[in-house]
Design a protein that fits this description.
Blueprint lengths: L3 E7 L3 H12 L4 E4 L21 H4 L1 H4 L1 H10 L3 E3 L2 E6 L4 E6 L2 E12 L3 E3 L12 E3 H11 L6 E6 L1 H12 L6 E4 L3 H7 L3 H4 L3 H16 L4 E2 L2 E7 L6 E6 L2 E6 L2 E6 L1 E3 L2 H5 L4 E4 L4 E4 L12 E3 L9 H18 L5 H28 L4 H4 L7 E3 L4 E2 H9 L5 H8 L12 H12 L3 H4 L13 H10 L1
Parallel strand pairs: 1-2, 1-6, 2-3, 6-19, 8-15, 9-10, 9-15, 10-11
Antiparallel strand pairs: 4-5, 5-6, 7-16, 12-13, 13-14, 17-18, 20-21
Helix pairs in contact: 1-4, 1-11, 6-9, 7-12, 11-12, 14-16
């Protein structure tokens, strides 16, 4: 692995792959660092090793990522897999661990393409064995062909329906689909629908998933207002409330999902400014139209800056690379802007659909802010909603103070799985907007790093 490069890209999902290929095609030396064993990210995970015969389950859209993976393999990009990036400095120095050894890499420009993660879904029982995020279940399906038995799908958003539909096509009996989409969302989203029909194919595809699920005999409940997962040693049943009345269904596994949010930990730790998005109810990186951040020489591409979807993420990766090429002297402004034109058209076409989906599937407040005080919020440190509210009553004003009160956000994930919930609870308790509360302050290393690796790194220096 080279110790210096023109452009370093972190993450090999659609945005990262597109950025790396674009930069390499225009003469830059490119280092692509990815934590996974193969390129593709979550959306195109393991697509390079999947047989096309699996399209009957995963869908033809999944295999479209194969072309980008092939372009990456044929390029001059140095693609390092199993690379855990734990540090990015304002001097464009990258700390990364590969095969148990830590290294420092210097780049003229860095593109962070860490993608998205699933939004926390803190409901009673969500920490029981047998309960996981729907996206994690899809990882098992794509990477290992593993399907969970008799699942209950709970939540909202296109990805929930897609994964349930993949299970249906695989012939796995589904216990139930419990849709938590607020009924009021549809009325609010209808005004955005005409513009979204520029991507009518995507809308009809989603409606097709819903139709197949409803006509398959699968229990499909809408208007779910509350959720409780029950079980002694593992998930055994799900209780759900509709129109004020509680119902129950048995389950062997429970798959939760209420949308995705940007994976911001690395960008925040690097010092990139972020702002609160009321549309997506999460933190977005403060970037310009090229993905250039508030830290000199650092860009953020794809869903890591704000959720846009696979096609737009790929376009944003290309745009970030073109701007990086200009900034390191490989392209002139006219050349950059000319090459960017078709990518801009993709973004323009996709944006109305994204606005419609954001409004339609915005998660309900009761599923973002747990009402049951016993619900665990920080799984790493086992901190409950009640403990967070108690800390606020004692004078805690934000997530950074809360670390001193409860250690919430100080576990191995550094708040990745609880940060949004923590800030939302504090804001709710104080009666203030989340943007006033802020996010937890993140510092390097953003991923677990062995002291021995750090010591060996110091010896090398």
């Amino acid at each position: 692995m080279k110790s210096r490069t023109d452009i370093a890209v972190i993450g090999a999902g659609p945005a990262g792959m597109a950025a790396a290929v674009m930069a390499a095609d225009h003469g830059a030396s490119v280092l692509l660092l990815d934590e996974q064993a193969a390129a593709g990210g979550q959306i195109y995970r393991a697509v390079g090793s999947q047989k096309a015969t699996g399209s009957a389950i995963l869908g033809t859209e999944y295999y479209q990522g194969g072309a980008l993976v092939d372009r990456l393999a044929a390029s001059t990009v140095e693609h390092v897999t199993g690379a855990t990036v734990w540090h990015v400095s304002d001097q464009r120095e990258i700390g990364v661990s590969v095969d148990g050894a830590a290294e420092l890499i210097n780049a003229d420009h860095i593109i962070i393409a860490t993608g998205a993660q699933e939004r926390p879904f803190p409901v009673p029982g969500w920490t029981l064995p047998g309960v996981m995020n729907a996206g994690a279940a899809q990882i098992l399906l794509k990477s290992s062909g593993v399907l969970l038995p008799y699942p209950v799908f709970v939540g909202t958003g296109p990805l929930l329906y897609l994964i349930a539909h993949q299970y249906l096509r695989a012939g796995v009996p589904i216990a139930a689909v419990l849709d938590t989409t607020p009924r009021s969302n549809l009325c609010q989203a209808l005004g955005l629908l005409p513009a979204a029909f520029r991507e009518a194919g995507q809308i009809w595809k989603g409606l097709g998933w819903l139709k197949d699920l409803r006509t398959s005999g699968t229990t499909f409940k809408t208007g779910v207002e509350d959720i409780r997962i029950n079980g002694a040693d593992h998930a055994e049943s799900v209780e759900y409330k509709i129109a004020g009345h509680w119902h129950s269904c048995s389950a062997e596994s429970v798959l939760l999902h209420q949308g995705v949010v940007p994976n911001v930990n690395l960008a925040m730790a690097a010092g990139c400014k972020h702002h609160w998005s009321d549309a997506q109810l999460c933190w977005h990186a403060q970037v310009d139209d090229w993905g250039y951040s508030t830290v000199e020489g650092v860009s953020i591409a794809g869903d890591g800056a704000g959720i846009v979807g696979a096609d737009s993420a790929q376009a944003l990766g290309g745009l970030a690379a073109l701007d990086a090429l200009y900034r390191i002297g490989k392209l002139s402004i006219p050349e950059r802007d000319k090459i960017a034109m078709p990518l801009r058209k993709i973004m323009s076409r996709q944006q109305p659909l994204r606005r419609f989906l954001d409004r339609l599937y915005q998660p309900a407040e009761q599923f973002r802010i747990p009402a049951d005080p016993a619900t665990l919020v920080c799984r790493c440190e086992e901190v409950s909603a009640a403990e967070i509210r108690e800390a606020v009553s004692l004078g805690c004003q934000g997530p950074n103070q809360l670390k001193s009160f409860t250690r919430a956000g100080m576990g191995p994930c550094q708040g990745r799985l609880c940060g949004l919930t923590v800030s939302a609870i504090i804001a709710d308790e104080l009666g203030r907007p989340v943007q006033d509360i802020g996010a937890a302050r993140l510092r390097s290393p953003v991923k677990p790093l062995e002291l021995g690796q750090l010591a060996a790194l110091a010896d090398k220096e």
